[in-house]
Amino acid sequence: MTPQGARPSRTADLDVAVVGAGFAGLYMLHRLRGLGLRARVFERGTDVGGTWFWNRYPGARCDIESVDYCYSFSSDLLAEWTWTERYATQPEILRYLHHVADRFGLRRDIQLGTRVTSLRYDEPGARWLVETGAGDVVTARHCVLAVGNLSSVKRPDFPGLDSFLGEWHHTARWPASSVDFRGKRVGVIGTGSTAIQAVPQIAKQADQVYVFQRTPNYSMPARNRPLPPEELRAVLRGYPGRRRAAQMSDAGVPVPPPERSALEVSAEERRRMYEAGWRRGGINALSYAFTDFFTDELANFTAQEFAREKIRAIVRDRSAAEALCPAHHIGTKRTCVDTGYFETYNAGHVHLVDVRRSPVTRVTPRGLETAAGEYPLDVIVFAIGFDAITGAILEIDIRGRGGATLAGKWSGGPRSHLGLCVAGFPNLFIVTGPGSPGVLSNMVVSIEQHVDWIADCLSHLEGRGIDRIEASAGAEDAWVRHVNEIAGATLYPRASSWYVGANIPGKPRVFMPYVGGCGTYRRECEEVAGRGYAGFILGGTAAPPIAF
Ligand code: FAD
Ligand code: N01
């Protein structure tokens, strides 16, 4: 935030322009300051926080344990912040990010309420021209896209929405003032992680709740609880080891990796393992039990069956229970984590509406119409998700060398080297971009890793007077091939998930994240840097080719 009353320069020549002020943009700015670089963050929201600024719907909280879903770069910050629950609520995480912005004096270099609309690379000047929605153009030697994987909202495009006489909200554009559901008939569209968190909270207030479900999802019990101060202190005492374990794990969480196949143990042993996971709760309740959860159909089926049995045991209405049972390979769409979601359907005022069988046809002035009839509603909640991973990047008109557009380059799916850089787009970095583990991991661990890599890279360039870095086309091809090959050996690409862009009509169907795990990926990135940025062209000189 610029000082009160002062207007940021409209033409500043920056060392680095950062887009986005969530976990990624805030830490990036801190690191850039440490390098003595002139940096500015552009954020379209009216405050910092990213995901945790926008998603204020009832029930919003993280599903990675709070003590792991936070920065580790400052031991003072770790020591002075008190997480109060196993899984922090949205307001608590937002308070934490405000504290980070204030504590490290970041706000003076953050320009809020400013959307970056285009980025054009001026090759002769070796500068990015950063254009904002206000028409200002700022130049920067480097650009970092910290725009978020889940920040481009999927807009509700139901015919008739404008005619609706009630209130409607998208969960990712939730108003700062709370929405009053008391005495109201509420329709919730969607049954992903968001709806699964929101429905039980909405049901506590509303008179009637109609959940419009197209595809059921697996959800693990959160087993959320207060975090006693002595437990937090004990965690902090062992924090460096805990964080290192998270960094070197597959999913960015400090959980020991499984050792056995689900198919090499007896049915009783399998059940014992799944029950233990279910009791413990959390996103990895079942997926961390066996090695072949994500790779073997039969192994995966054993966990699916266990989860479906749990749903049938919780939901008393037989037909609702069956309708809530998912059929896809468990884990291939992001597993949800809930507090009382399935139990909510035992309340008489909560109704499941199957819109796979009878799709939503339109919004009427009074409610929602499906092929089976009209549902009168006072409030509609759209929990319909995001144009994930590439959406926020491609909302910006990005043009690299020779005026080539990123949208054109990615028309068949995203291509990058390490998920960090794109051939043809020099001095442009992406935090947790497609081709990196990002969305399959604890994202704060992945964000810290990328930000550190980018900062170290810039320090390397500055120290040697190198003014340009660009991924080579060969390294990019090899990385894309590698990302696809390892994904192809898993069950992931088979699901119609946002990981493959299936939720956005017309989006190329490509599995976008890197499935090799955070630890393996980190080693790969470190090796590339250690070899003088192998696979990148520095200052016009080709570095040695990289082999996979
Ligand atoms: P964001 O927090 O999305 O921030 C990006 C910012 O960039 C946004 O503020 C956006 O407004 C801004 N921006 C985008 N485009 C532009 C532009 N053109 N101009 C200016 N500004 C722009 N991950 C986990 O690992 N664990 C969890 O428990 C977890 N819970 C989640 C719960 C919810 C409800 C959601 C939606 C996501 C959750 N995630 C979780 C994923 C979450 O997005 C990341 O953990 C993390 O917050 C991402 O931080 P970020 O800084 O990369 O992106
Ligand atoms: O979005 P989603 P989300 N008609 O895309 C349905 C993170 N997150 O906001 O599956 C009817 O998962 C759609 O149906 P279908 C987490 O990474 C984490 O819930 O396409 N229905 C689906 O049910 C998560 O994965 C937490 O058939 C329509 C739902 O809307 C990611 O954010 C909490 C429809 C969208 O589900 C996104 O989650 C919240 C239509 N036209 C979010 N269009 C934590 O707990 C869409 N749907 C940490």
Question: What's the SSE blueprint?
Answer:
Layout (H helix, E strand, L loop, with lengths): L12 E7 L3 H12 L4 E4 L8 H4 L20 H6 L9 H14 L6 E2 L4 E7 L4 E6 L4 E9 L21 E4 L14 E5 L3 H13 L2 E6 L5 E3 L7 H9 L1 H10 L18 H14 L16 H18 L3 H7 L11 E3 L2 H4 L5 E5 L5 E4 L3 E4 L2 E4 L2 E4 L8 H4 L2 E3 L6 H4 L18 E3 L12 H21 L5 E3 L1 H16 L29 H13 L5 E3 L2 E2 L6
Parallel strand pairs: 1-2, 1-6, 2-3, 4-17, 6-18, 7-16, 8-9, 8-16, 9-12, 10-11
Antiparallel strand pairs: 4-5, 5-6, 13-14, 14-15, 19-20, 20-21
Q: Can you describe what's shown?
A:
The two termini are 43 Å apart. Strands 1, 2, 3, 4, 5, 6, 17 and 18 form an 8-stranded mixed sheet that branches. A 5-stranded parallel sheet has the order 7-16-8-9-12, covered by helices on one side. A 3-stranded antiparallel sheet has the order 13-14-15, with no helix packed on it. It has 2 domains: 13-152 and 388-465, FAD/NAD(P)-binding domain; 189-382, no CATH class. Helix 1 runs parallel beside helix 14. The chain is α/β, with parallel strands linked by helices. It has helices spanning 23-34, 51-54, 75-80, 90-103, 193-205, 229-237, 239-248, 267-280, 297-314, 318-324, 341-344, 391-394, 406-409, 443-463, 473-488, 518-530; strands spanning 13-19, 39-42, 110-111, 116-122, 127-132, 137-145, 167-170, 185-189, 208-213, 219-221, 336-338, 350-354, 360-363, 367-370, 373-376, 379-382, 397-399, 428-430, 469-471, 536-538, 541-542. Bound molecules: flavin-adenine dinucleotide (FAD) and 3-acetylpyridine adenine dinucleotide.
